[in-house]
Amino acid sequence: MSDSSSNDTLFFLIGLPGLEALHVWLSIPLCALYLVSLAGNSLIIWVVRSEPTLHQPMYYFLSILAVTDLGLSAYTMPTMLTIYMLGLRQVAVDVCLAQLFFIHTFSIMESSVLLTMAFDCFVAIRSPLHYGTILTNTRIASLGLAMVVRSIGLHIPAPIMLKKPPYCQNRLLSHSYCLHPDVMKLACANTHINSAYGLFVVISTLGMDSVLIVLSYGLILQTVLYIASKAERMKALNTCVSHICAVLLFYIPPIAMSMIHRFGKTTSPSSPVLLSYLHYLTPPVLNPVVYTIKTKEIRLRMLRLFCPGRSGIRDIHGH
């Protein structure tokens, strides 16, 4: 079969290698994860919007994180569910390029939100008396706009560059959704520019963001160590626990994937796929759970919604 232009190419996605017979059954937990993500993040957005006491910077950033998680779920799940539920693996090139654009855009947006939330934690601990004057509504809106512009602007070239080259006979991708490096490998043309562009995006976003988050926590720890009271130190650190969990959920899987690609030559073919699922599926599901458990104000608002009688008792006792 001869090479084909990208305009009439179909790509083929995969599920979990070796578990094709179980794909229909695996679609059940996938549907459950999607519904939990949809419900949890929508509830976070609704709670923050409807509760005046939560109209504060950290909760605005949490709402942006929830919107980002909804977007990430919305663009990863459709092709996954068609593979596992219906056994349909082919995807048109235009649909594939649109999917990879939105997946990478929302992924970088999530990284940007996590970095901004690290800055929020630092300001709250370092300058609590000036917190409201530093993170004003105008500044929060500007940060939100910067995150969107940065994420979209960096990824507009991706589908344009991948639309041009011809694709070879082997059009089998290695994930259940389209990703830039995966599609790039199938091109029957020189991909050095594509590769350099992808590396630049990763270093200037995920790489830079992760370094800045680590530096932020270094400054937070330095500030906390100057607090005389042990109880106050623990209280200050406790405000960042939810954010630390969110950061670990988001960054550990891609780090592990990178290690496997470089050193894990004998690992199972399912390992990169599972790690990719952890990276794209678990943050949208677990972030709302973590923030609900660890954030008293959100927890109380949830209790008022679902258990009106019990929430009044808890408000009185301050638990």
General description of the model:
The chain is mainly alpha-helical and 319 residues long. The chain has a single domain (6-317), classed as Up-down Bundle (Rhopdopsin 7-helix transmembrane proteins). The protein is built from 13 helices and two strands, in the order E-H-H-E-H-H-H-H-H-H-H-H-H-H-H. The protein has a two-stranded antiparallel sheet. Helix 1 runs parallel beside helix 11 (270-294), helix 2 (57-86) runs antiparallel to helix 3 (93-126) and helix 3 runs parallel beside helix 8 (192-225). The longest helix has 34 residues, at 93-126. It is globular. It starts with 9 loop residues before the first strand and ends with a helix. Mean pLDDT is 84; it is low at 1-7 and 311-319.
Provide a brief overview of the structure.
By secondary structure, this protein is mainly alpha-helical. Helices cover 75% and strands 2% of the residues. Helix 1 packs antiparallel against helix 2, helix 3 runs antiparallel to helix 5 and helix 11 packs across helix 12.
State the share of residues found in helices, binned by percent.
Answer: over 70%
Mean pLDDT: 84
CATH architecture, please? Up-down Bundle
What would CATH call the homologous superfamily? Rhodopsin 7-helix transmembrane proteins
Q: What is the CATH topology?
A: Rhopdopsin 7-helix transmembrane proteins
Strands, total number: 2
Spans of at least 5 consecutive residues whose pLDDT stays below 50 are 1-7, 311-319
If strands are numbered along the chain, what order do they take across the biggest sheet? 1-2
